[in-house]
Amino acid sequence: MYVYTTRGICAKQISFNIDNGAVTNVTFYGGCNGNLKGISKLVEGMPVEEAIERLRGITCGGKLSSCPDQLARAIEEGTTRQVG
Q: Which residues form the TSCPD domain (predicted)?
């Protein structure tokens, strides 16, 4: 289980697993409950590289990041920690 503390968005933390190169069990803490449940379901079982590619760089309103972007960053960090 990875836990990532977000920066600059409504959700405060994201937890998830990486199983056999795929993202699983994504949970956002805080933020827009329905939208974040939807994102969690959409990325469930998605290969790590695909999730990062699809979510990285998405912004929210005037913010430089978003919950999907922060999830991509969390996955990148989790993948680095898993390998390193």
A: 4-77
CA 78, CA 30: separation in Å to the nearest integer?
Answer: 20
CB 73 within 8 A of CB 56: yes
Please classify residue 72 by burial: count the beta carbons closer than 10 Å to its beta carbon, then call 0-12 exposed, 13-18 middle and 19+ buried: buried
Going from N- to C-terminal start, the domains of the chain cover 2-83
Q: What is the C-alpha to C-alpha distance for residues 34 and 38, in angstroms, rounded to an integer?
A: 6
Count CB-CB contacts under 10 A for residue 67: 23
Residue 80 confidence (pLDDT): 80
Residue 82 has pLDDT above 90, yes or no: no
Match 């449940």 to its residue by tokens: 37
Res 46 pLDDT > 60 = yes
Cβ-contact 69, 49 below 8 angstroms: no
